[in-house]
Amino acid sequence: MMAEFDAIVVGSGITGGWAAKELTERGLKVLMIERGPELAHIAGYKNEWTSPWDLPFKGYGDPKAERTTKRVQSVARLNEWNADYFVDDEQELYETPAESNFQWVRGYHTGGRSIMWGRQSYRMAPDYFEANVRDGHGIDWPIRYKDLASWYDHVEEFIGVNGTIENMPILPDGKFQPSMGFNAGEQHFADLIKAHYRDRRLIPGRTANLTKPIGERGTCQYRNWCSRGCSFGAYFSTQSSTLPAAVATGRLTQLHNGIVESIEFDPQSRRATGVRIIDGETGQRSIRTARIVFLCAGAYDSVGILMRSVSESCPNGLGNSSDVLGRYIMDHAYKVGATSTIPGLDQAMYLGRKPNQVIIPRFVNIDRQETDFLRGYSFWGRSERMNWNRGGEIAGVGVGFKQALRKPGPWAITMGTVIEALPRRENRISINHDKLDKHGLPLTRIDLRYGDNEQKAARHAFDELMGMMKLLGGEILSANREIAPPGSSIHEMGGACMGHDPQASVVNAFNQLHEAPNLFVTDGSVMCSTGDRNPSLTYMALTARAAAAAVSMAQEGKL
């Protein structure tokens, strides 16, 4: 039977959008399936320009929803403007043991979490692709930095990443637009660190916000309303960037409210033939066919789809003959941090609200093992002047108090920690066939726990951070030693890890399922390790590389 499409892309988020763009631009007829409703660029951003006084809770959020329908989602950058972009926790169920308490943040609509993401865009260091094989944790990456370098270039030039050239091996430089730079508080902290330490530095963040226009996308307006959606297209999202490129080819078909139940698989040819879909509005089931399938549903949703793809030839799920599917799931250990005031800068101010951070890249365990834990961590944060909201934290009443709050408050800086989590086989996803969701699908069960290594790294990071904060000579306003529950970093990875050995991994070096070479998995599920930085840029580079390989293989008759 003739396939309906050359390729099906499951998911329209950061990787799904990239797969659709790359495949259509290379001549393929593509169906992109999104499990949620359409969220159109500009027209869909219903609260982008809404003033807080026009919202039911004046911008402070619905306290009842934060305890119920948005309880888990509230660990993200959820607010009253963008709450509808996040799933309803009481409708989109999953399981997690109390000992794990995994926080699964999701957005089911066009663009997925590319609308709400933090936009921090960093390359994995060469060392990070070798750490697993060096210290014996997890699965050896089947690729190295050199295999992705040109694809990082390709992605950065398209999405637009602002940053500075630093010549740090632990943080590879890229194809950057002009940096958003430091404000006065950040510059002061950077100067103090430079004067007191030889092994570290504070640098401007690298974020996918435009400082120069690209095509019809305008430059950042420094509103810091990014998670509402940006009608200027000034930050990278599926809506602003990859989707228009794919649509422009005339070869893209979009399907919304299509929940992919499973992958259709032919045991004779050992090929995926399409996907089985549930209509999210009517419940009707259907099958769509293609010669190639790209699974980009989001790390743990993609794993769930593979696990539900059960047949006589794949009784434990497609890609799971070696019991590796669902294992080695990871998320950065997160939330260790502190806030301090910065005295002496009362005459300094800034314009707008810069939607970027500052970072202190990893400085431990680089050339040698020097701590009682493996791998490392990095620091991330921002500085700004306190605004009128500080009045809720200090004593005062009357006209004079209110007048004082009209003026900018003290400078402060907040720094947090992103800690690399070791890949562990026992951290895993499974599905519970005894409990079904509203679509009749078995619930995903997520069991991810941090170990002694992450706790030791957290203690070390906290002590180092407090030492740096004391240099400021200000008041420590808050400090947190404890790691947040897994999932809070919203960097879920693993579950369908890459590798050379089909008995120890799920996909190969080009993201092809070992058991079905025309099925490509290119989201966070394929990551073999986390590094200590935001992974989205790596997902995009892997997807672009896999799409190019898929088209080349198809043209050569290898798929």
TrEMBL record:
Residue span, FAD dependent oxidoreductase domain: 6-60
Question: What are the boundaries of the signal sequence?
Answer: none
Q: What is the lineage of its organism?
A: Bacteria, Pseudomonadati, Pseudomonadota, Alphaproteobacteria, Sphingomonadales
Q: Does the keyword Zinc-finger apply?
A: no
Instruction: Tell me a Gene Ontology molecular-function term this record carries.
Output: oxidoreductase activity, acting on CH-OH group of donors
Query: Could you tell me the keywords of this UniProt record?
Result: FAD, Flavoprotein, Oxidoreductase
| Oxidoreductase listed as a keyword | yes
Q: Which family does it belong to?
A: Belongs to the GMC oxidoreductase family.
What cofactors does the UniProt entry give for this protein? Answer: FAD
**Glucose-methanol-choline oxidoreductase C-terminal domain: residues covered:** 423-542
Residues annotated as domain Glucose-methanol-choline oxidoreductase N-terminal: 219-332
This one is known as: GMC family oxidoreductase
InterPro entries registered for this protein in UniProt: FAD-dep_OxRdtase (IPR006076), FAD/NAD-bd_sf (IPR036188), GMC_OxRdtase_N (IPR000172), GMC_OxRtase_C (IPR007867), P2Ox-like (IPR051473)
- Write out the transmembrane intervals: none
